[in-house]
Amino acid sequence: MNALRKLITLALVLLVVAPAAMAQTKKKKPAAKPKARTSTSAKKPKAAPSMGEEIEIQPQAKPEQSQIQANPPQVQPEPPTMMVQSGSSVPRAEQGDGGLNPNSARPIDEADIMYKVTNWRRLDLREKINQPFFSKNNEITRFLIDGYRSGLLKAYKNDSLTTELALEDFNTNLRYENTEGGLSEEEKAAGFGKASEDDGWGGTPKTDPKAQPKKAATPAVEDDGWGGTSTAKKTAPSAGKKPGAPAANNTAANNDGGWGDEPSAAAAGGPIEYFATELPVIEIKEDYIFDRKRSRAYNDIQALTIIIPAEKTARGFDVPVASFRYKDVAAYFRSNPKKFIWYNSLNQAQHKNMADAFDLRLFNARIIKQSNANDAFLTDIYGGEKAGLLKSQQLEHKLMEFEHNLWEY
Q: Measured on CA atoms in the order 196, 198, 199, 200, is the torsion positive or negative?
C-alpha cells in the first residue's frame, strides 16, 4: 500500500517537473548560425531532369516579418468630399461669401433662412416718435455727412452698395439746384452766353452816333432817422479816429437796413448746400428674415439713404444724396456711445446709442416698397399716396400674422 502511494506521488512530481525542465532546455538551446557564403558555396544551375525522374516542387519562402514591417503597403487617399449646404445644391467652395450676406451686421447662413423678403421704409425724422434721432446738434444726417467727409464712412451711389460715391459727386448732390447763377457747362459748350459779332442780317453791328455816355448818378437822399435827410458821401476820418476805422453809421454802407452780420456778396455768390436740419428723411432698406435654426424673425437692416424731400427740390420729387452700409454705420455709432445718442426726453439718464435704438426698433417707418419684379413703389402699383399708405399698413399686419401663424398653441 505504501509502495503504491510512493508511485502515485512520483508520477505527480514528474508531471509537474517535466514540462518546466523542457521549457528551460528550449531557452538554453543556441540559435543556429547562418553559414558564411563562399565562392565554393555558390549555387550551381541544376541540370534539366531526365525522363522518368520525379520533379520536386519546393514551396516559395515566405518573407520575413521585418521585411513586411519595413515596407508597409501604401494607402490610397480618399477623394475629397464636397461640403454642400442643407437645402442648397451649390457647394460652399463655389460661394464667394461662404453663404453669408456681407452687408449684414449680424449675418445668417443662407441654409438657415426659411423665408426672406426685402422692404424699403421711409423714416420721417419730423414725426414725434422719430425726433430723438433728430435732436438739435445731434441729427443723424449730420453724423452721416460728417462721418463720410472725415473718412470714417463710405458712401455709395444707391442702396445696392456696389459703386462708391466720389467726394465731388457727394458735394454736388448736397447743393441747392440753380443757385450758382450763370449758365451751366452744357449751355456754355452749346455757345450760349458768348458775345455775338453778327447783327442778325449777316453784317457787323453798327454803333449809334447819338448814343451819349451816361451821367454819373447823383448821391441818393435818405432819411437820417430824425426827420432830416442825409446824402451818402465819403468823409475824411476825424482827428480822433485812426486811419482804417469803420465809417459812421450814417454812411451808405450801413444804411441798408441790415444788422451788420450779413454775409458778403462774394460769400453769397458760391454754391449753397443743404443743412443737416433740412434733410429730415432717411430711406431704410432691410431684409425680413425667418431663421429656422433660432425659430424667430429678424429685421436685418442693409442700407441707410439720405433723401432730399420733394418739397425742397426744384424737380418736385425725392432726390437721394448718398447711401451708407448699415454695418459700417452701426460700428461708427458704437465707436463713441456718448456722442451719437438717441435723445430720451422722458428720462435724460437713459439716453441710448443710435445703433442700439435701431436694434430696439425705437422708430416708426412705413413701408414704401416691397421686393417685386418691376421694382415699383406701392404708390405706383396701387395708383396714389392714399392707396399706397393703406397697402403699407396691410403689409405690416401680413408680416406680423405670418410669424404668428407659424406657431401652434
A: negative
Q: How confident is the model at residue 135 (pLDDT cuts 50, 70, 90)?
A: very high
C-alpha cell at 200: 442778325
CA distances to 163, 224, 247 from 218, in Å: 60, 18, 21
pLDDT at 325 over 90: yes
pTM above 0.70, yes or no: no
SS3 (DSSP) at 359: helix
Cβ neighbours of 48 (radius 10 Å): 6
Cell of 274: 443743404
What pLDDT score was predicted for residue 56? 53
What backbone torsions phi and psi does residue 15 show, to the nearest 5 degrees?
-65, -30
Domain boundaries, the chain: 110-176+274-377
Give the helix, strand, coil percentages of the chain, each rounded to 5. Answer: 30, 15, 55
Which of 264, 355, 275 lies closest to 312, judged by CA? 275
First-residue to last-residue Cα distance in the chain: 97
Q: How many C-beta atoms surround the C-beta of residue 353 within 10 A?
A: 19
Output the pLDDT for position 41. 45
The angle that helices 326-334 and 140-149 make with each other, rounded to 10 degrees, is: 100
DSSP letter for each residue of 380-408: HHHTSHHHHHHHHHHHHHHHHHHHHTT--
Sign of CA dihedral 346, 352, 354, 360: negative
Edge-to-edge strand ranges of the sheet holding 155-156:
155-156, 319-325, 296-308, 281-291, 113-124, 366-370
Residue 7 CA, distance from chain mean position: 103
Give the integer Cα–Cα distance in Å for 285 and 283: 7
Torsion from C-alpha of 355, 357, 361, 365, nearest 10 degrees = -90
Pairing of strands 134-135, 296-308: unpaired
Residues 106, 328 contacting (CB under 8 angstroms): no
